[in-house]
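Batch manifest line 258
LIGAND: adenosine-5'-diphosphate
JOB: complex structure
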Amino acid sequence: MVASSISVRTQKLNLWYGTFQALFDVDLEIKQGIITSLIGPSGCGKSTLLRCMNRINERLGYVRTEGRVDIDGQNIYAEEIELAQLRKQVGMVFQRPNPLPISIRDNVLFGTRIHTPKADKLSKEQEEEVLEGALREVLLWDNVKDRLDDTATRLSLEEQQKLCIARLLPLKPSVILMDEPCSALDPKATEAVEELIWQMRGTYTIVLVTHNMAQARRASDECVFMLMGKMIEHTETADLFVTPKDSRTADYIEGRYG
Ligand SMILES: Nc1ncnc2c1ncn2[C@@H]1O[C@H](COP(=O)(O)OP(=O)(O)O)[C@@H](O)[C@H]1O
Ligand SMILES: [Mg+2]
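JOB STATUS: finished
ARTIFACT:
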C-alpha cells in the first residue's frame, strides 16, 4: 500500500485566548484528499483547532499560538507566509452561509478578481469559464445558470452554502475547512450538501467540524475526537464508532456526555 501523504500536520499546538488555554499540545496528521471530521462536546476546541489551519484566530488580538502547523509541507506560521496567499490555499466555509449581497456571478468571481494582478485580469470569456466550472463542481450550475445576475442572498440556504463552497474553488485551494457547514440547513439540504462534500473528496483535503455524530459517521473517512482542548483519538471513522480505543471516546459516542 502506498503511504498517503499528509496535508495538514500540527505539532505541539497550543493556543490561548488571553489567559484561557483552549488547545493543549495537539499533534495531528490529516491525510491529503480525504474527509477528516473533528468531533467532541461543545467547547472542546474543534473550531479553535480548525481556525489555526488558516490562522483566522489571529484576527483577535488576544490570541496566542505556540507550536507548529504545516500545510502541504510548509510551516504556515513562518514569518514569510502571506496571509492572503494562505487563505487562498486553505478555504473556509462557515455555519451560516455568508454570500455577499451581490450577484451569484460576482460572488463566485470575487476572490479571483481581487487576487489577480491587473495585468493578468481575466477576459469576459475566461471569467465565464471559471464561473461555470465552479458552479458545476458544486452541482449548482443547472439550477442557477439562467439567473446568474440575481442577488445571491435570495437563494435557498442550501444553494447559498453551495455557492460559498463554489466561490473558494477558482482560487484552487488544496484544503477546505468547514465549520458545521450544515447546521443552518434542514435535513434534505443537509443531505445534499453532505453529498457534495463527499464528491469533493480526492480533489481537496476536507476538514469538517461537526457536533452531529451521525454526520461524522456518514460523511468522513477519518475522525478526530477532542475533549477539553486535547486530541484524544484519531482513527478511521468506522473504527472510532465501533471499536474506540480510549474510554473517553467510548463514553462520548455512547452519549454519556456532551
Ligand atoms: N473568541 C473567543 N474568545 C475567548 N474564548 C473563546 C473564543 N472562542 C472560543 N473560546 C473558548 O475556547 C474553548 C473552545 O471553543 P471552540 O473552539 O469554539 O469549541 P467547539 O468548536 O468545540 O465548540 C471554549 O471554552 C470557548 O469558550
Ligand atoms: Mg465550534
